[in-house]
């Protein structure tokens, strides 16, 4: 059986302007954070506690800016070709 990874997305909540960590199942995995850096640090703490996890860091406009991978393929990189034109819109937008 293939190993399943945990996915966390750092997103801005448009109604409040706060930043939160959203788990792959759609629920929020964190309280509100005033800054994206604070939400990112919280997400990294969650991800490092698992065998294989990914964090996708979104910009204020919803675009994907960076991806962090923990576990079997530990890396951190900018996502090429993903700018403001390639926007992720979570279901709560």
3D architecture notes:
The structure is a single chain. The chain has 93 residues and is an alpha+beta fold. It has one domain. It has one helix at 36-48; strands spanning 6-12, 19-23, 53-58, 64-70, 75-78. The protein has a 5-stranded mixed beta sheet with strand order 2-1-3-4-5, with helices on one face. Strand 3 and strand 4 form a beta hairpin. The longest helix has 13 residues, at 36-48.
Number of strands: 5
From the spread of the alpha carbons, the general shape counts as globular
Pattern of helices and strands: EEHEEE
Structural class: alpha+beta
Give me the Rg, rounded: 13 Å
Strand ordering within the main sheet: 2-1-3-4-5
Question: Would you tell me the overall average pLDDT?
Answer: 75
Q: Strand share of the residues? A: 25-35%
Low-confidence stretches are 81-93
């Amino acid at each position: 059986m293939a190993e399943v990874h945990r996915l966390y997305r750092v997103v801005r909540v448009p109604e409040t302007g706060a930043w939160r960590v959203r788990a792959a199942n759609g629920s929020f995995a964190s309280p509100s954070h005033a800054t994206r850096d604070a939400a990112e640090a919280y997400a990294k703490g969650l991800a490092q506690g698992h065998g294989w996890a990914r964090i996708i860091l979104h910009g204020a406009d919803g675009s994907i800016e960076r991806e962090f991978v923990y576990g079997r393929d530990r890396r951190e990189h900018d996502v090429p070709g993903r700018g403001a034109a390639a926007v992720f819109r979570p279901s709560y937008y």
